[in-house]
Specification:
Length: 167
């Protein structure tokens, strides 16, 4: 929220405004609560009392960086990707020449556009697709959702596994 809990509660008390505590915030069954109750206090004690604020500020900067990289990747993807016969194709060289942070984002976009379930896409799939961009022609990788990507000439084609490939 950009404001620490103690400061917010102090502001509310000063104005005699009611507030409620969500009882689920006390449960260590949730990752966010374990971080809040165990990790952040340890960081504050061992490193810096303002550790939580510094983490929030760093996260905001990382979000800004990620948004810029995502926008640049979207531009590259839209330039390099097309559909042929209903199947996604992506220029291999367009992917291969990108710096890795952009290439990985473009690869993820391609996997999603090809029909891979975004919940099943792992970093292994992304790295394999980036590697396929510089692999020998005819190389292929299996992808989630019974899809395959194959290097055909200067293109990466995405097809169902059981679909006959065309030259």
């Amino acid at each position: 929220l950009g404001i620490e809990r103690a400061a917010l509660r102090g502001w509310l008390r000063k104005r005699r405004l009611p507030f409620r505590d969500d009882p689920s915030n006390a449960s260590l069954a949730f990752d966010r609560n374990r971080v809040r109750h165990l990790i952040v206090p340890a960081l504050a004690k061992a490193l810096n009392p303002a550790a939580a604020r510094h983490l929030v500020e760093a996260a905001a900067r990382l979000r800004e960086d990620a948004a810029l990289l995502d926008a640049l990747a979207r531009e590259r993807f839209e330039t390099a990707a097309t559909r042929r016969g209903g199947h996604l194709v992506l220029g291999a060289e367009a992917l291969a020449v990108l710096p890795h942070p952009l290439a990985a984002r473009v690869a993820r976009m391609a996997l999603e556009a090809a029909g891979c379930d975004r919940r099943r896409i792992s970093s292994r799939h992304i790295e394999a697709l980036v590697g396929l961009a510089t692999a020998a022609r005819g190389s292929s990788i299996d992808l989630p959702g019974r899809l395959v990507s194959r290097r055909r000439g200067r293109l990466l084609e995405f097809r169902p596994c059981d679909s006959p490939a065309t030259s």
